[in-house]
Amino acid sequence: MEHQALNLLEEAIGLHSHHKPWPLSGRFVLVEDCVETSGAFVLHHLLKSSLSSHPSSVVIFLAFSHPFPHYDRILRKLGCNLAAQRDNSRFFFIDMLMLQCPDEGRPSQKGLAAVFEKIEGVIRTLHPDSMNSVTIMIDDISLLEVAANGSSNDVLDFLHYCLTLTSEYGCTFVALDHKDIYLNGERPILILEMEYLADILIKAKPLATGLAKDVHGQLMVLDKETQNLQISSPIKIHNFHFKIKENSIEYFYPGTKT
Amino acid sequence: MYLAKEGNLKEMVSHDVDVLKDFQSVGCIIILNLSGVKTIDAVMASTKIRVSSFSRNVSNVTSSQNPGLKHGPNGTTFLSSGIPDLDKILGGGFSLGSLVMVMEDSEAPHHMLLLRNFMSQGLVLKQPLLYASPSRDPRGFLGTLPSPGSFKDDKSRDHDSNHDKDLRIAWQYKKYFGESQLNINSNNGAKQDYCNDFDLRKPLERQFFSGAHIDCVSIQDLTNLAPLLDRCATFLAQFSRNESNVSSAGRVAIQSFCSPQCKYSNMEWQMLSFIRSLKCMARSSNAVVLVTFSPSLLSPSCSKRLQHMADTLLSVRAIPDEDKELAKLLTGYHDMVGLLNIQKVARLNTQVPVILEATTFSIKLQKRSSIIDNLENSANWLDKSLVLDFKLGLFKYGHIRINCDGIFYDNKKRAACSALTVEALALKSALDMAKSLSLFDAIFESNCLLLEDAVIKGDLDFDWRVNNILQEIGVVLKAFSGGSIRHISRNLNKAADWLAKAALARMCPLDWASRPPSSLASLLDFDMESIKSSVG
Hints:
- Chain A is an alpha/beta fold.
- Chain A has 9 helices and 9 strands.
- Chain A has a 9-stranded mixed β-sheet, with helices on both faces.
- In chain A, helix 5 packs parallel to helix 8.
- The radius of gyration of chain A is 18 Å and the shape is globular.
- Chain B: This is Elongator complex protein 4.
């Protein structure tokens, strides 16, 4: 990927470093949004860039909120054909729309455990070349909670299991969650734990001044730099605005939009 | 008279057709857009211009196959909400496969207006309907559905502003209104069939209840939601999506989903799970699901989760009866019955958010009069919000007026033994604030004549309760070179009052200084005259 072609988001999450074929491998990216500003576009962006990063990279997508045609249409406009990638076994779409874990009477782990086995099974069957550049995406965790009948522990267990894959196979783990659900102090364990575990936090917020035509919201990217353990560099925070278009997303610093 | 009628509107929720007849003298319900013009342009643009080369070319041929449906961008299909102007705001209507949620106001039944029109429109178009409600006899509610207005009237109304019976949203300027209407008509000849105007005074005629395609469910006695989900699943299965052809569309309306009469209402996770499943089923079928719920009955996190699940999120709010302050702010306040907020517009198959020019609209009850004339005076400010902490009015003359009446001091909650003490304390805190902001040529306004006299004269034996405060004021006042204290009668203070009230209601336009709304402009003019005469 050419250095000039990187936009602010890609720079902020460290895609410019050339240490590895895919700089995000082994990291956990958490995207947080709210009712006013959806952060789904960050997932689309990361989905596209991880598929195009390496000719043998693989994405496993757990969809709780939309069916396949929705993502297919969006990604096609971004210049990425998901249907073709699915046929090439580079994009694994796991439709979780109707997943409902069994009620509390029975061990409710069963539903999510099966999902995890499915993910692991997909990774195991991959060609060794692509095994190192797998991205697991979840859209979104709040619906995963609903599917698990509100059992935060089961959800956390599941997410921990997914995270072990990042160290075991060097997968990238990307998840979307809605921050405003947890803001009133009710059951904040899940979001706190997730924020603690995340290597990179991306928060999408509306503009403080309200809706605008040219600026759709602001992003805060927090890179904990958890990889360079020997250098205790301060946590980097990037703030910028964005405008979402059908075929691209514009990122710019506040006030620099022309 | 209107306000009395507004009271009646609240009783409409009791499913009483007779009350509906009371509306005879009032006429119709209107939703108007207070910041109109640009929105209509935006909507027109989104229907005319293809956003990217990937979107499907929309042909009118297919839309004429089924009059109740219209093609939208990104391969979506719209059906009408039953309110022509809400359709326009939303860019065409509700998308098939979307979940529409309406947040109720616990004080007012305005969500019922949306629900009634949504259901009526479906019945008029012979679209099958599933209606679930917490009442004992949901079928009885069908008797309160409004009937479509006469079609002839419909056709001529675009060019004639003397229509008076429709449920609609009126725009700010007549000329734009006319043009856009023409545009829509030329775009789609089948518009009249797609969406009707409803006359709330007339109940829907019997011919539309052919019975076969209406399914009513009472959710009052349900102890869990599985039966309702099954019912919805069988209903939606009729419309399962077949990419090539959209032959018919269904409507599901669930009223007051979380109401406490329902026995499941304490099981939040089950309700969330139901809505999630319902959304998934809707997504794979050619139907629109409209659910109203009251956020106040749920925990905040649960209500947020529901809001996230909604594809299109609307909320309704009541306008308090006889709120004199608001009446001053809003042109045509007496005709309004509530506010409609559009919080989220469905974006199926796209990641681009729909940004509306305005998100707050008012629902109006209007007598037989020309709506649009009234609206030309109304101002473009309802949507934006700004909170002013103090009543500060800035003027071009280089003076800053600080209005310090008793309210100014309110937020500190100190016990005071008289109104005079409060006024004095307010003046003191205003002085302190001005000093800290280095506003040394400010004019302090108080509406307490006694106090001002005392301060100006330096009369320290004025009243024992305020003496020490006056002394402090005297000390602080010495720092002010160009400052003065003057009396201001209450009605000279309206502009600052207006701003403060608008800001508190989060309705103050950000550009009030450069482009004041008409109601503020007149106040400002008046103030300007008065300050000229007093400052010279």
